[in-house]
Description:
Layout lengths: L1 E12 L16 E5 L3 H15 L6 E5 L2 H9 L5 E5 H10 L5 E14 L1
Parallel strand pairs: 2-3, 2-4
Antiparallel strand pairs: 1-4, 1-5
Amino acid sequence: MVTYYSAGSQLAVRPPAKKKSGPRNLCGRRITVLDGSQQYAQLTEKSANCVEQKKKPIRISTFQSQAPATQAVINGKAYGTLAESPVIQAAVAQSGGALVVNGKPFDTAPYGIA
């Protein structure tokens, strides 16, 4: 196996990204995510941590595909969207400046070819 890149979860928001911290400090914010995705599980766990810290839970909005999840952020209906880093980077590139990446990918894994 030859590793050719790493990917993980990444957050995109409307500019300017006030904090480049990625998915930290999302308590009380509305975040879009694909239903049943790894990122949904990550947000659910982070939301439970918010509640344990006596903060407001993350308001998770689920979608069946990334395009409407991204559009909800562009339209101001959510603070950000969380997805696989290649998906987020493509969404940011296609947004014409309406979105920016917020933070580095996390929970990364190498992808390879045999």
